[in-house]
Description:
Layout: H1 13-44, H2 47-74, H3 77-100, H4 106-137, H5 144-194, H6 210-223, H7 225-241, H8 247-254, H9 258-282, H10 289-309, H11 313-341, H12 347-376, H13 378-399, H14 401-404
Helix pairs in contact: 1-2, 1-4, 1-5, 2-4, 2-6, 2-12, 3-4, 3-5, 4-12, 5-9, 5-11, 6-12, 7-10, 7-11, 7-12, 7-13, 8-9, 9-11, 10-11, 10-13, 12-13
Amino acid sequence: MASTDPYAALRYPNFRRYILGVLALTISVQVQGTIVGWQIYDLTNDPLALGLVGLAEVLPFIIAALWAGHAADRYDRRRLVLWSMGALVGCSGALLALAFAHAMSTPLRLTGIYGVIVVSGVARSFLQPARISLGAELIPRSIYSNAITWRASTWQVAAVIGPAIGGLLYALGGATLAYATDTVLMFIGLLWMFAVQHRSPSRAPIDGPVTQSLFSGFRFVRSEPRIFGAMSLDLFAVFFGGAVALLPIFAKDILHVGATGLGILRAAPAIGAVLISGLLAIWPITRRLGPVMFANVALFGLATIGFGLSRSFWLSVVFLGLSGAFDMVSVVIRSTLIQIVTPEPLLGRVSAVNSVFVGSSNEIGAFESGAAAKLFGTVPSVVFGGLATLGVVAAIALGFPALRQMDTQPPH
C-alpha cells in the first residue's frame, strides 16, 4: 500500500537533491521560454514566428526520442542527465552570446535563435526519459505516486517563478540580463544533479537488434489501452487547447500588459497547478481515477475557452490558473499509471514515448496555435482549440472504455 506520509519521497536525500536540480533546471527553462517568445514576437510581430519556435524544438526532439529512451534503459541514467544538462547550459550560453550581438541583422539573429532551439530540442529529448527514470530509481515503488506529485509540483513551482522572473528581468535589463540569469540557473541545476550520489543498477544487455529495442516502448504502450488512452488524451487535448504559445500576442496586443504582464500570464497555469498539487500530496485521488481524469481535461478545455474570450487581465490570469489546476490532476494520474504499470527495464523507453506524446502536444500544439492565429485570428483560434478539446475528451472516452472506467491504480 502506498504511504500516506505526504513527505515520504522527500525523506530520501538523493531525491531531495534531484528535486532541487529539477527546480533550478525548470526555472531556467521557463525564463528562457518567456524571453525567447517575447524577443521573437518583438522582432517579427508575426504569430507564425511564435509557432515556429515550438516546431524548431519538437522536430529534433521527436527524431531523437526513441534513441534517447533506448539510451536511458541501456546506460547510467545519472550520466545521461548530466550530459544532457551540460548541453542545455551551452544552449543558454549561446542565447546570451546572441543577445550581446547588437550589430547582427534581424534575420541572422532569428536564424541563430532557432538554431539554438533545435539543439536544445535534441538535448531535452535525451534528458527527459533519463531524468524521469532516474527519479524512479531514487525511491521505492510504493511511494511513486507521492514522488510524482512532488516532482510535478516542483516543476509547477518553477513554472510560476520562472516566467515572472523572466518578464521582470527583460523589463529591467533586456534579453542580456534575462539570458545571463537563465545560464546561471541552468548551471546550478547541473551542480545539484551532480550531487545525486547514485549509479543506475546493472542491467542485462537488451536482446535483439537496436531497431527492435527502439520500438519496444511503442509496442508496450500500444498493448496497454489505459496508458495508450491516457497519453492520447493528453496529446490531443493539449495540442488543441494549449494557448501558451500565443501569450505574447495577448500580452502585447489584446491585454496591453507588456513583458511583465506576459510573465504573470505564463506563470498563471503553474500557480493553479501548484495549489492543486499541494492538495493532492495531502489528499491523493484514490478512486474513480478514469472519470476524474476525463472530467478535469474537459474543464481544462472550458477554461481555455474562457481565457480566449476574456478581455480583463486578471480574469485571464484566473482562467489560465484554472487550466493549470485541471491539467495537473490528469498529469499526476497519467504519470503514476505509467510508472506503476511499466516494467523497470522498459521505463526509459516508455518514458521516451510519453515524452514524444507530451512534446508533440506542447510544441506542435504551439505551431498549430501560431498557424491558426495567423489564418483565423488569435481569439478565434484559442476558442476553437478549447471546443476541440471537449471533442477530444468525448472521442477518447468512447474509444478507451478501460480508461474511462478505471477506478483505482493497478497494483505495483
